[in-house]
Amino acid sequence: MSDILIVDDERDIRELVSDILEDEGFSTRLAGNSDECMSEINAEPPGLLILDIWLKDSRMDGIDILKAVKRDNPDVPVVIISGHGNIEIAVAAIKQGAYDFIEKPFNIDQLMVVIRRAMEASRLRRENSALKRREVTSSDMIGSSAAFRTMVGQLDKVTKSNGRVMLKGPAGSGKEIAARYIHAHSNRANAPFVTVNCAGIEPERVEEVLFGRESTERGVESGLLEQAHGGVVYFDEVADMPLGTQSKILRVLVDQQFQRVGGSDKVRVDLRVISSTNKDLDSEIRAERFREELYHRLNVVPIAVPSLEERREDIPVLADHFIEVCNSTQGLPQRDLSDEAVALMQTMQWPGNVRQLKNLVERVLILGDSSGPIEARELPSEEEKQSDDGRVVLSGALATLPLREAREAFEREYLLTQINRFGGNISRTASFVGMERSALHRKLKSLGVVTSTKAGARVAHVDDEATEAAE
Ligand SMILES: Nc1ncnc2c1ncn2[C@@H]1O[C@H](COP(=O)(O)OP(=O)(O)OP(=O)(O)O)[C@@H](O)[C@H]1O
């Protein structure tokens, strides 16, 4: 079991707490001021920190120490000791990330309850992140085609370095999963992986979201960059980053530091930067929508992520994998794939790549037959297939509807497909389909399309109640 570091300027108190904890089977270390405390933590982060708020003869008070611990060793739980009548300070400490506080004078039972709970919470958190990592490393990167193996070979080469990687590939091809693979196999695997959805941040909130904020009422709220300290920050779809944000990110990459909104101190962070794009950034630079200098900083090691059409031979293993995932996470039937279904899937167009395949598998398992192998007839027939001269071929069903209903049916199906293709992200769907975000929201409402979270992913579907009411 890891040990407990007790920091208090009163020798009697730290020795008393230490005696109690050692009687309970914990090992302890002691510190009487902030310097001793920081050198103990730097030598070896403890399993738990018990920290007095007021420290005499110290360069840092308890709150400063707490901030440093939450920044550099966020997994170490901190229990605050506060003097009687200092509840407000203790509450402020909790806002800064302390697990709990005990008020002096305290009794042994109270102390033990708080410590056991703090240790348990931190154990669960660590286990949880280990599980998440295992999920990514062992099961998520599926494939054996040549194109896939080439990519994995390149990912393996960059895991050991700290170089900035740019993943280039179409939407849904697995860029984020590739970034997570680099993280999980690097020496930063135990530190955070934080995704910055470049299109999704409102331009007026960019600084707050990335750099955090400081105010007297709410204390320090760390932004995404600070949350990623020691680990990896993943800029998803950098081409969608507004120009103003690009300059701010560039400055951070050059200076290696930033200021929180409302704060005056410089915050230094240690980050590995991975970014992704599905656009051709050279033409974005020529069109003056992307800053060339930022491109060169991000594009140190470019890695191509192949589209699903470039790795069609992986389709059967990927589909089997998604059937298994749907079975274990949602209890959907565990079915095989018939040879005809596999053949059809391997000849289809996949503009939404692996994400589209995953959604298709889920849809067939929900709507299709409940047992037996998946047959080709259960896969969506390509109703709105393009004819050779680019015109849309009308299927029987659509052709029998009045124009208004046919248009609605088409719009509903089209937008459902697009939203799911963009993983439920309305901003990106809006930008792809060429509508304003608010107009798209209105449209979806009128068509009865809603989004909800299913097995951790945002999915779009038709809200039956809304469409019935409209009819
Ligand atoms: N090789 C793979 N093995 C298993 N699942 C995969 C693989 N590649 C992609 N996926 C799955 O496909 C979906 C899309 O992948 P991901 O989000 O990584 O794509 P992306 O290229 O980052 O998409 P976008 O550009 O739209 O953000 C995810 O659910 C992911 O788990």
Structure overview:
Interacts with sigma-54. GO terms for molecular function: ATP binding; sequence-specific DNA binding. Required for activation of most nif operons, which are directly involved in nitrogen fixation. Residues 3-119 form the Response regulatory domain. It comes from Falsiruegeria litorea R37. This protein has 471 residues and is α/β, with parallel strands linked by helices. It has 4 domains: 4-127, 3-Layer(aba) Sandwich (Rossmann fold), CATH 3.40.50.2300; 146-306, P-loop containing nucleotide triphosphate hydrolases (Rossmann fold), CATH 3.40.50.300; 308-380, Helicase, Ruva Protein, domain 3; 384-471, Arc Repressor Mutant, subunit A. It is 48% helix and 15% strand. It is built from 20 helices and 16 strands. The chain has helices at residues 11-23, 34-43, 62-72, 87-95, 108-140, 146-159, 175-184, 206-211, 224-227, 243-255, 281-286, 292-298, 315-330, 339-347, 353-367, 396-399, 403-421, 426-433, 437-447, 464-470; strands at 4-7, 28-31, 48-52, 78-82, 100-103, 165-168, 193-197, 212-215, 219-222, 232-236, 257-259, 266-268, 272-277, 301-304, 449-454, 457-462. The strands form 5 sheets. A 5-stranded parallel beta sheet has the order 2-1-3-4-5, with helices on both faces. A 5-stranded parallel beta sheet has the order 7-10-13-6-14. α6 (146-159) crosses α7 (175-184), α13 packs across α15 and α17 (403-421) crosses α18. The longest helix is centred in the first third of the chain and has 33 residues, at 108-140. The model is unreliable at 134-139, 383-388 and 467-471 (pLDDT under 50). Adenosine-5'-triphosphate binds next to α7, α13 and α15.
